[in-house]
Amino acid sequence: MALNIKNERVHALAREAARMTGGSQTSAIEQALELLLREHGVDATSFERINRLERMLMMGDRFRREERRSVRGVSSVDELYDATTGLPR
Predict the structure, then answer these.
(1) What is the pTM of this model?
(2) Contacts of 18 (CB under 8 A, 6+ apart)
(3) For the residues of 20-38, what is the DSSP string, one character each?
């Protein structure tokens, strides 16, 4: 994940916030964004949970699409396995 901030003032604010808190610029920005979300009535914890759930649903959709693609042309599950060894072909 990358966030490329091309604003010197924002960089300066992040550096100062990190210096004041003794943390990293990333943690200072994270704390500031969480505070901003709370002030606007968004619970950061529930936001993270929803974000994780959305990612999981997207992964499930992708898996289903890939599975359909990989099984196309196969009329039976038996065709996927070797009759002698029982191992996948």
Answers:
(1) 0.50
(2) 24, 25, 27, 28
(3) HHTS-HHHHHHHHHHHHHH
d(CA 3, CA 9): 16
| Per-position b or e across 18-42, b if 16+ CB within 10 A of its CB | beeeeeebeebbeeeebeeeeeeee
Token pair 């289903």 in the structure block, residue: 64
Q: Is the dihedral of CA 14, 19, 21, 23 positive or negative?
A: positive
Structure confidence by residue, pLDDT tens digits, 26-69: 999 999 998 998 888 877 777 677 778 888 888 888 887 777 66
Place of tokens 């964004």: 33
